[in-house]
Amino acid sequence: MKILAIETSCDETACAVVEDGVKELASVVASSKELHEATGGVVPEVASRKQMEFMMPVLEKTVEDYRQKMGFEGREQVVESIDALAVTVGPGLIGSLVVGVTTAKALALAWEKPLIPVNHLIGHIYANFVDSQKKVEFPAVCLLVSGGHTDLVLMRGHGEFEYLGGTLDDAAGECFDKVARMMGISKYLGGQLLSEKAAGCEKAFPDKLFPRPMIFSDDYDFSFSGLKTAVKRYIDGGERDIPCTAREFEEAVVDVLAVKTMKAVKNFRVKSLLIGGGVSANRRLRERLREEAEKVGVFLHLPPPRLCTDNAVYIASSAYFNNKKVKLQDIKADPSLGIMGRL
Ligand code: KG4
Ligand code: ZN
């Protein structure tokens, strides 16, 4: 089954074709990230205008890449070969979501194909299923760490999710971004740059420089705002060693994420550990989880970094494994959808 998916939840415009939820056949991503760098944060109006501008070229290029990959002569064969369409309906920015949802609905009518609505957060989890070296075995624990969310979820099967816990304030990615801005590393989405700087620190600290909020709390929740304040106080105190401050901050975030995730892995005796969301591209987090997973003998799936950040490949995969029949007129953008949302 071949699914063409559209993803426009924030500032990426993405489209992809995936076969049977696991085989990527085409994927195109355009981003308006540079525009938001100037303002130091995403401006929803700007993001949705760019979605409108990018939507058709991204769709056109995906269809063309797919046509070439399959060796089809014309568009008719492309349309014929697609079994269903999928689209992200939330969470995200309403103006951005509407562009993708409207485009997908129009395409579903024109091509006479079913349209499958996808929750963006569940979508992130499905990056683990695409072109993976090993089939995911259930039950699994999923750590979802993105710019807007930090959630721990128990997955007993496709569509069978149980929320274990999540952040009570800032998301992990948001914390990376705010600290990167504070340290003058980048005004917008500085997580990756901060991590690259952190790799340059060679000093060892005898004591942990920053707190690990809620690390041993009796739940699966997180809190990152106190850590952000601690870094701010440290910098305001005159500290100028950017790489080592970045590394100590990164260690604190990774420590909390790893300890809580492994607690869930052990308590629920799962067979697989899945990660998703932009922060799951973080080198240190991946290293640490690999070490911990090896110790307890659980298989850690590590999606390639390009599938960790927003794209439409995992949206198509999620649609394949969670193919709920919804009438076209009932498919609507839902900006505040949660991970356990209505889908
Ligand atoms: O999943 P994503 O692309 O968008 C959302 O759905 O939010 O995640 C973006 C977040 C940003 O906060 C970005 O700074 C962070 O992921 N991020 C990273 C890394 N790559 C992306 N954070 C830490 N280390 C990275 N290598
Ligand atoms: Zn995302």
Explain what this protein looks like in three dimensions:
This protein has two domains: 2-126 and 307-330, 2-Layer Sandwich (Nucleotidyltransferase, domain 5), CATH 3.30.420; 135-303, Nucleotidyltransferase, domain 5. Helices cover 43% and strands 18% of the residues. It has a five-stranded mixed sheet, sandwiched between helices. It has a five-stranded mixed sheet with strand order 8-7-6-9-10. It is globular, with a radius of gyration of 20 Å. Helix 6 runs parallel beside helix 8, helix 6 (172-182) packs antiparallel against helix 9 and helix 7 packs across helix 9 (242-267). The protein has helices spanning 33-39, 44-70, 75-81, 94-111, 120-125, 172-182, 191-198, 225-236, 242-267, 283-296, 305-308, 313-321, and strands spanning 2-7, 12-19, 23-31, 84-90, 115-119, 140-145, 150-157, 160-166, 272-276, 299-300. 5'-O-[(R)-(carboxyoxy)(hydroxy)phosphoryl]adenosine binds at residues 146-148, 173, 176-177, 189, 191-192, 195, 277-279, 281-282, 309-310.
